[in-house]
Design goal:
GO terms for molecular function: hydrolase activity, acting on carbon-nitrogen (but not peptide) bonds, in cyclic amides. InterPro entries: Amidohydro_3, Metal-dep_hydrolase_composite, Metal_Hydrolase, Metallo-dep_Hydrolases_sf. This protein folds into two domains: 317 residues, Metal-dependent hydrolases (TIM Barrel, Alpha-Beta Barrel), CATH 3.20.20; 98 residues, no CATH class. The mean pLDDT is 96. The longest helix is centred in the middle third of the chain and has 16 residues. Helix 7 packs across helix 8 and helix 18 packs antiparallel against helix 19. It is built from 20 helices and 20 strands. It is an alpha/beta fold and 543 residues long. The two termini are 25 Å apart.
Length: 543
């Protein structure tokens, strides 16, 4: 797509070091943008004496890298996108597209009952939603709501747990043929309305109650629309490798592309075992499987305190969980599963209360717990850790979020190097002290793992954050700096880019990312958030 020399572009970025997202070598170039698209790329224009594109605005990018906007393959911004016009948590990182509807639980498709229940179930991820006008019920209506204008673009996964909740409630049993047919129809409707795939949360109720035969049938529907399956599988602790293999086999049997989300190996039982996982994936890829994965560049995980509970205690939904917790005999059974047996909610590993840090509460009265481990709070109260955890679960009505310090740096780096790896923050912006990955994932990749540690080259890292996610999402005009592509672009300083967010200050914004554009419009300009809301819903590309 050539720009007429007499025609002014909306923007010309001059003398940028272009890392185009392909993984190939960078080049120095002028890049011209008009009407939200890249219209011209002139390499080494100044040195070659070429005619240079002219623009209404011309930006000197000397010393800056220009690359495609980053794609967050695992985000929990389902409500933040609707209620937060600024959303600097992602915009300031250079994220131009988030994939939401993760871990099998989100806010569409629902009816009034299911909406109320899912709001309760994931309060710890997104807040109560009392400040949100839930005008939608279907996937299409949710995407239409995003189309009114949001901070960054968003794609949606049909959440399998929400679908099951809508059809079957919170029962731990096999679906009847009629129920399975209805779930198939709901998944098909979601795909037809623009979802890019389906997610599951197989350690979260009620999605965890689905047997593999049920999941396989739903994956067949997803595959028929060209989508992919993104499971939070049944264990990241004891039995993690078996759980990975289970998902690989299930997706192969369904003929469905597989994206392994937050593909970690956590807890002491998995220290140093990344090579076993990667061998499993290499074997499946060599046999023709279509597999990708995402990770965040940190060792601790993040979830809700209620998520650690055994699945039998979660059957029936939030109110039933609370009744079980206040009953002394039932609470003792829960404690035994957590501390002795290893509950399935805690990935089959007995909980270590020294590793469970409270990061957020729904009730501000409980704020003193934040920033302390459960054991530390228990010692201050002179009581057993389970007594403290139980008290907090009940008083906060299951709305408590936690950090779990159970990861291993060698596993993080090994998985990060794999050729099917992409980036995902798994970022929860809710809570007083959220995981810093919500604000820091993408600059941390560039600053720590590229510049400081050399785990990845700059070109390779950018490809993992841009074109490879775009390929998984089947987006024909995003993820590369190419003429004709959408001008979703990031300019950063490779010498200074870094995550500002830390565990002590998790909402600090990154450094070294002065410019971010979506559809050719600046959402970050000279390091400051503009009032532009250029984001929209990104719907599945029809086959």
């Amino acid at each position: 797509m050539d720009l007429d020399p007499l025609d002014l572009a909306d923007l010309v970025v001059r003398d940028a070091e272009v890392v185009d997202g392909s993984g190939g070598p960078s080049c120095r170039a002028d890049v011209a943008v008009k009407d939200g698209r890249i219209v011209s790329i002139v390499q080494e224009a100044a040195a070659a004496g070429c005619a240079r594109p002219r623009g209404v605005r011309e930006l000197d990018a000397e010393g800056l890298v220009l690359c495609p906007g980053f794609i967050d393959m695992h985000a929990h911004s389902d409500l933040a996108l609707v209620r937060d016009p600024d959303h600097s948590a992602k915009a300031a990182q250079g994220v131009t597209l988030e994939v939401v509807g993760q871990d099998g639980l989100s806010y569409a498709p629902v009816d009034d009952r299911a909406l109320a229940e899912v709001r309760r179930a994931i309060t710890g991820w997104n807040g109560h939603g009392d400040d949100t006008d839930f005008t939608w019920r279907s996937v299409g209506e949710y995407l239409d709501r995003l189309d009114r204008g949001i901070a960054v673009n968003a794609a949606y996964l049909v959440p399998q747990g929400t679908v099951r909740m809508l059809v079957m409630g919170w029962e731990d049993r096999e679906a009847t043929p009629g129920e399975l047919d209805r779930m198939r129809r709901l998944v098909a409707e979601g795909m037809e309305q623009g979802a890019v795939g389906m997610s599951s949360g197989l350690t979260y109720p009620p999605g965890m109650y689905a047997r593999n035969a049920e999941l396989r049938e739903l994956c067949k529907v997803v595959a028929s629309y060209g989508g992919y399956y993104s499971p939070h599988h049944r264990s990241y602790g004891a039995g993690a490798l078996e759980a990975y293999r289970e998902m690989v086999d299930l997706a192969r049997e369904a003929g469905c592309p597989l994206h392994l989300t937050h593909a970690t190996l956590n807890f002491g039982v998995n220290e140093g075992r990344a090579d076993e996982l990667l061998s499993l994936l290499d074997e499946a890829l060599a046999a023709g499987a279509d597999i990708t994965l995402d990770t965040y560049p940190y060792t601790p995980g993040c979830t809700t305190l209620a998520a650690l509970l055994p699945s039998w205690a979660a059957e029936g939904g939030p109110e039933t969980i609370l009744r079980r917790l206040v009953d002394d005999a039932t609470a003792e059974r829960i404690r035994h599963d957590l501390e002795v047996t290893g509950s399935d909610g805690c990935h089959g590993v007995p909980v270590d209360w020294d590793t469970v840090e409270i990061s957020g509460v729904s009730d501000p009265v409980l704020g003193a717990y934040i920033g302390r481990t459960v054991r530390e709070s228990a010692e201050l109260r002179r009581e057993a850790p389970w007594t403290t955890a139980r008290r907090l679960l009940v008083e906060d009505r299951l709305g408590t979020t936690i950090l779990q310090h159970v990861g291993h740096e060698d596993n993080v780096r090994a998985i990060m190097r794999h050729r099917v790896h992409t980036g995902g923050s798994d970022g929860i912006v809710q809570g007083a002290k959220p995981h810093p990955r919500a604000y820091g994932t993408f600059p941390r990749y560039l600053g720590r793992y590229v510049r400081e540690l050399g785990v990845l080259s700059l070109e390779e890292c950018v490809a993992r954050l841009t074109s490879r996610p775009a390929a998984r999402l089947r987006l024909p005009d995003r993820g590369l700096v190419r003429e004709g592509y959408r001008a979703d672009l990031v300019l950063f300083d490779p010498a200074t880019v870094a995550a500002g967010a830390t565990f002590a200050h998790p909402r600090a914004l990154p450094t070294g990312i002065p410019y971010v554009l979506i559809d050719g419009r600046f959402v970050i300009d000279e390091g400051r958030r503009t009032n532009v809301r250029a984001g929209r819903a990104v719907r599945r590309t029809p086959r």
